[in-house]
Write a structure and sequence with these properties.
Blueprint: H1 2-32, H2 43-49, E1 55-57, E2 60-62, H3 67-80, H4 82-85, H5 89-107, H6 117-122, H7 141-146, H8 161-179, H9 182-191, H10 193-203, H11 215-232, H12 261-276
Antiparallel strand pairs: 1-2
Amino acid sequence: MIKKHLIACIAVVLITVLAKVGVSKTSVTHVKSFPQKVDVPSPRDEKESSPVISFEFASEEIPVQHVKVSQRMEKYLKASSYEHIQTNRLHQRAARWFPVIEPILKQYGIPEDFKYLPLVESGLVGGTSPKGASGYWQFMPQTARSYGLVVNRSRDDRQNMRKSTVAAAKYLRDLYKEFNNWTLVAAAYNVGENSLKRQIAVQGHDNYFKLKLNRETASYVYKLASMKEVIENPIKYGFARRGESLLARDTEQPKHRVIDPVTERNAIDALNLLRKQDL
């Protein structure tokens, strides 16, 4: 009886051991069933394939999938944010003047995004640069006269928003006939069409984002695109709404506004810095 009980116990132990060995072999076989080589994306691949925020100017996409382009956009977006300029003045000027600019651009077949050009050029404030460019669109005297503006000691149509916008629209239209690309039109407006054509001929291509241009022109489209983004998405970049939208066009503007000179000076300094900043 004892011998039978002992044999039964030994049998149970053997069955248990064999079961464990079987499980172990099954586990090993399962691990070996994985591929020997697993393709894991490198950090660089992940960076290139990861989704990015898209930006465009005049319906032409800014290629922010490229690192240098993305860095420049980030730089100018930050420079245009409320954290940097500390005033809503640009939004207020845009609200005042965009309704004047937009229908004129449309009349001449110019993309609406070019309304941001005078915002970058002059902050939508008539003024004269050291080089002699003047007005909202910063026309040089010769170019202004060639597009029908009167520029003399007693009268300067560059300071007239409607007249200067008509002249700018005609000029932009002519530039598009030359370059057939709105990004290049913006660059040519800044540097001059002859200078840009020379660079395209020398470098053998007409991709603005790959052309080696002077610092101001190389950053120009980025400034326009970032200004567009900040004006169209004020909350995203720290500009708090006060009642209605900062760009509400049906809000009557007060006839007399008290402007803090310190705030105004900061805004002008920020615009000047934005024009000079380059990577």
